[in-house]
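FAQ: What does the model actually see?

It sees only this:
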Amino acid sequence: MQIGSWSRALTLAIGAVFLAACGGGGQTSANLASPDKQILRANDGTEPNSLDPTQQTYTYERAVAIQTYDSLFRAKADSSDVEPLGAQSFDVSSDGLTYTFHLRQNAKWSDGKPVTASDWVYGWKHLLNPALAAGYVDPFFDQTIAGASNYGSVDTTSASAVDAYLNGLGLSAPDPNTFVVKLDHPAAYFKWVATLWMAAPLRKDVIEQAAGGAFSSTDTTKAEAWANNAATIIGNGPYKIKEIAAKDHITLVPNPNYWAAAPKLQQITYYYIADGNTAYSQYQTGALDIINVPLADVTVVRGDPKLSKEAKLIPTLSQYWISFNTKEAPLDDAKVRLALAKSIDRDKLVSDIEHGNGKPLPTFIPKGMPGYDPSDNAQSFDPAAAKKLLADSGKAAQLAKMKLLTRNTTGNKTVNQFLADQWQTNLGVTIQLDVVDSKTVTGQHLRKGVFDIYGLDGWISDYPDQQDWFDIFQSGSCHSLNWGCLNIPGYDALISKADAESDKTQRAKDYTQAQKMLIDTAVVAFLYQPYEYDLVKPYVQGLTVTTTDDQYLPGDSRYNQAYITQH
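And it is asked to produce this:
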């Protein structure tokens, strides 16, 4: 998912995994805290816009959803493949068009009723209902599931039109334990789509009861009435919602009917503390067990003999870059773009500006994900080579007229001023910052192609498959994901081939070739892979920390395996 600044208001980073056992390994009954002390308190930062998983978009929403709902699969702790949750296994037809999911037969809802295939069909149709306009339908579902391609053109004021669309989707339940999804075209990555948290089952009877009875498919109010009350949020995940305290916190307790072993944690409380300094103070007083360290306090924490031992530096499956408007001169010249890319000291950027919370990365795919390859040095820092490239282009005077579009946030202004200083120092070109409010940047500049150079731009992975990254720069994504609109000859066809390729070796080769095309043409100036710097109390044990976890909630993908020790 595209990012403009590293903040809580970001969509999920589901990616490859950095495995770390927080506080050590196995639990022992000798130091396990009593059940009434098995309480985890963390800062989720922002209140979810919805508690219906199918209607969620952001990490702070997913944080609640993955505790209360199971998707079909999740990423293994080493990101090598998917592992079972709602489904125990799946089959793919020889033509790659039919995925048959064999459901977990002992799965139950939090009220004790069995989870059936019809619940999965209903949940996915709820997600794909055009009237509800879920944020994650496009492109993950409408561009892959058979019958879904006209999602954006359905008349959402017409119940008959919506019903016809939903009934025409390639979703079926031939028996209570089998969920079948037919695709529009082969998509070798679709098993990863099945790990997305919004692709959850839902209970038709619960939703209709909360709505006061059956309702029209165009009635968005009744369709979401159930998600406003803890009593009617019936999930199939390891926890259930006990309390919703608007604008303050949400409390989760174990789902007694969950298929896996009963969790040790008897309560999880997520607080909605937007101010990082407030959360930091509450961590120091013991009111919170897990927080993200505010950037201004990173140096203090690293120098503190106690806090430094509680800090966790966690790679995120993400990458920042600078985008160029390749539709205008001189940025239509690869030499000019490469000159800008090669004149940035990424080591200095990460150490001085980001306080070491990241990894310099002049290539595309971040470390920890299949496809990571730092060998291409076309964009590596080399001031002398950068100056020669610009001189050879003969366009230095034109470049000096360019401006760097900058969102009006402290973080973006700080980084972009650093970049402007680098270009002045290492390239001899003065590029001014054009500071604009964030909403205007997106709506009036990026989507209309009205900019010269833009940053910070970047991507957070939705799942650990390269398809999620390489589709960004296809020509059809111009003014959408590919802000710069560079059309690289042969790139689109290569990516379409790789996306559908069932041979893993050939697929990897295709993506490797595509990555070289992006780097060598400087489609963007790749910068760095950001890391999280979190604090976790030493009595919080049993965490498996991965980059599939939500932002600032290390280990939350497997909180049902964590526990509190005596303290």
